[in-house]
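The instructor's notes for this session suggest beginning with a concrete chain rather than abstract definitions. Hand out the sequence below and ask the class to guess, before any prediction is shown, which regions might be ordered.
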Amino acid sequence: MIFEKIKLGEVYTALESGSGVVEAYIPSNSEEINIDRKRPTVIICPGGGYRFTSDREAEPVALRFRAEGFNAIVLRYSVAPIRYSQQLLEVAATVDYARKMKDKWNVDTENIIVCGFSAGGHLAASLGTLWTDDVIKERLGLEAEEVKPNKLILSYPVITSNNFGHQGSFDNLLGEDSTDEDRRKLSIENLVSKDTPPTFIWHTFDDKTVPVQNSLLLANALTENEVPFEMHIYPKGVHGLSLCEKANAKDGEKKLIDGHVASWFRLAIKWINLT
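After discussion, reveal the predicted structure:
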């Protein structure tokens, strides 16, 4: 396995003011299997309310995807007090970087998936809806097709800034003094278009931190724009379940272990292989 840690500001000068770091977990090809195998690549955006990036939604998730034969990349994106659009530019640059590493990392450049949890889900969905935005070309000098994600996986995502929104995420992303209009402009349900990639969504019905209405609003927007998606709403489960397993649950937090909700990962793998 190849493990690399890359500071995005050292590769993309426009990102020097941020703290974005890429942690790449890349399986090695073997002559016994297929030395030329091109692999799907998952870029993981952990949650943390744009205040930090959760360890529980980072390396453990990457290692699970790697075990399934994926290249797995964790993006430790910039958080508060660094404001938008730095985070969007960092995830866009990560997609571009993965494509540029297609030979060394054996990347299938037409199968790059951005997977986000909670606020990281908002970031993943932001790229999924804004990959054609002029700010990316103006700041990074990249064309839209270079940063386009092919699929999205959104785990209990922050989507809206309305009454169901997680206001702390928007405070950290935009500043506590940001206007309602500023926040509406980054409410994902308002940004979905026919250019949004196919999406896998999962949430729990009784999530009290990021209400399930976030995913429902997104599903409605995807339907209106004829974007195919798969969605799973589990009846029970707290926010921040990640893989729902003991291995990445905080010690003593039994509520973070749920064998039923853990099925989301296997379902997501099947969905990737079918789309």
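Then share the key points. Strands lie at 2-7, 21-26, 39-45, 71-76, 107-117, 151-155, 199-204, 229-234. The longest strand covers residues 107-117.
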